[in-house]
What does this fold into?
Amino acid sequence: MKTRINAIGREVPLDVRGVGEFVPYESPFGRIDTFASRSVTHARLRVAERGQNKVTDSLEGAIRKSGLEDGMTISFHHHLRNGDAVIPMVLEKLKEMGFRNLTFAPSSIPDSHDCVADYIECGLIGRLYTSGVRGKLGRLISSGRAGIPVVIRSHGGRARAIEEGTISIDVAFLAAPTCDSLGNISGSTGPSACGSLGYAITDATYAAHVIAITDNLVDPPIKGRVSIPQYRVDQIVRVASLGDPQKIATGAARITRNPSDLKIAENAFRLMKASGIIAPGFSFQMGAGGASLAVSVYLEEYMKKKGIVGSFGLGGISGHMSRMQREGLFKAIFDVQSFDAAVTESMSENPGHVEIDSSWYANPFNSGCLVHNLDCVILAALDVDINFNVNVLVGNDGALRGASGGHCDTAAGARLSIVALPSFRGGVCSIKDSVRNVTTPGETVDAIVTERGILINPLRKDLLESAEFTKLPVIDIHDLKRRIEKMTGRQDPRDSVNGDIVAVVEYRDGSLIDCVRQVEDL
Amino acid sequence: MKFHHKIRTEVSLLTIVAASAGTLESSDCLVTVVPAEVDGIRYEGANRAIFLNRTEKIAREIMERYPIENASIRIQDQGALEVTLRARIETAVERALEGARQ
It folds into this structure.
């Protein structure tokens, strides 16, 4: 395998067998700014028998009719979160029907789907394209036992790959919380309602064949918001249940009471304030993690006190963000993925709550994605390094245990990107000499905020000045690392011999930012 | 180190009984010391991948301070800081000796 060292010093392959050629990562916007328009894969034209009945009760019949063959590409969305029963249901049926060597290209894989590992081992899945990999599946891949090519993409990167044809979806199996008999789909109503179907919209637009799978078939016209229109849906399969509603519509995440997380949130908020970014027309994205969510408490109070009305909230939308919008603190929320049940309701009733697709959200190769209009994003991380590189994919033991998500997309797009994390976790310092895997390059991270101080990227001299001027607890990243390691100890040096490549990690522009290497004894 | 070595040679080696210190709560560790035919250190937990050498070194350093031989020590780490780790190992060894004296 030919490899090259990319611009951040990571060795990446120039081609991956069974997938194709790759270029090494250069810079956050280099490839985007020098891009000369080229023809993209257009949505395939298709015809349907006029007035045909799209509805069937037979998944097997629908699969046969779709023309799916061995080696083709199938896609799914992960909007049903850990309640999803559609991915296991379809994979089991495909296995039963004897399919082999399919490319499995979901928008991501819910934590609960350890079964995907079994479908790799039995030969049903021959290639994996995803945003996230965890649990048993993560260990299978990282140990090298999976033996299939794996490509990890961000949400924006996946939208790009689908639009340019790198991911060419043959059949999309889309869980549809409500679907009318013409094929109009809504994500925000029905017993398995999940809110936005943002990732599925992209799949439905570009797939050669779309099969909607629903447990709530209604007579047309569908009421309320249409996530995916009928002209993109070829067949409708009626099933008893899409999954466990309790796990699909998880309750609103509670604000953390962990004092360390609250301190992180307070520091992050103070940095936002010092940077002057919280002003009328302000746009914001936050994650669902403890510290990240708690930032919204400080932010909400401040915006109310100062009478500041923001422009939009973006991203994975939590109940807190949707409440801030209802209270008039943001004019709109753009929702590619809803995090909890509180959001689902807002999506079906609130015109200021806009369902967006993944290209609109984060694809750098279109005429304007929303992450490029973001003022500020608060992001989580597994760990970071002294060059501000962020890892959200690989655990301390080297096993895949995370998701790329919109991390690198928002970090690159937002004017102020803040990574919020505790300075140590589980007895291990969160600041490394060099992270095991880079998901988001340090040059797109403006600050790292911990409970023990704020670390500002030396590239952002202006931000450092503002922070020091307002007497924020700024600390040099090397100093904090030394302080923490006095408590945790220094971790053992890693073997200099690199394991085989078991997965490649794409940057949003399609170049390779890093790869995941084999670790034995997992 | 020389000093400890001297103790080892001049004082007869002490026998120990099985003893433990610590808990399996997160951010703690459970250290168990038992008499064994050969000395051994077993380090378990999620941090094994990055702290194996560090922890074995700490355990060896502590053991060398005591005139005992043929002890097997097991450390179940739940994400303990170094001070915790040292304190638990020391306490477990002290208890193992104390038990033998009685």
Remarks:
- Residues 6-101 of chain B form a domain with the Ribosomal Protein S5; domain 2 fold (CATH 3.30.230).
- Chain B has one domain: 6-101.
